[in-house]
């Protein structure tokens, strides 16, 4: 009688690769969030060096950056929970991946609307 799929080391290594990919995704989101948050400060300082300084608000970039950092933290926490619980199922779409894709699509749409509206 063949061993069960749970005893196959390939299943374990696939789960480990998936876990590490989620950690990498979370870290990437946190890094981009930090960069977005600080980019608003750069733009404000840059506009102050021009001949006619404009009042530039950095609120939107700080909020967006903080949201991306928080999303990265949530992704890392969810990946640890999924790894510890062993909920990975071969051939099943990841609910975390689908949720992340939807959230990022909505955030990207909002950022595009903001950029088009406030040129």
Short description:
This protein is mainly α. The chain contains 3 helices and no strands.
Class from helix and strand fractions: mainly alpha
- The number of distinct β-strands equals 0
Tally the helices: 3
The N- and C-terminal alpha carbons lie at a distance of 67 Å
Order of helices and strands: HHH
Rg on CA atoms, Å: 20 Å
What is the makeup of the main sheet?
Answer: none
How much β-strand is present in the residues? under 5%
Mean pLDDT: 77
List segments where confidence is low: pLDDT < 50 over at least 5 consecutive residues: none
Tertiary shape: elongated
Task: State the share of residues found in helices, binned by percent.
Answer: over 70%
Description:
This protein has 119 residues and is an all-alpha fold. It is built from three helices and no strands. 76% of the residues lie in helices and 0% in strands. The mean pLDDT is 77.
Please supply descriptive tags for the structure shown above.
76% helix; 3 helices; mainly alpha; 119 residues
Write the layout of secondary structure elements.
Elements lengths: L8 H40 L10 H27 L9 H23 L2
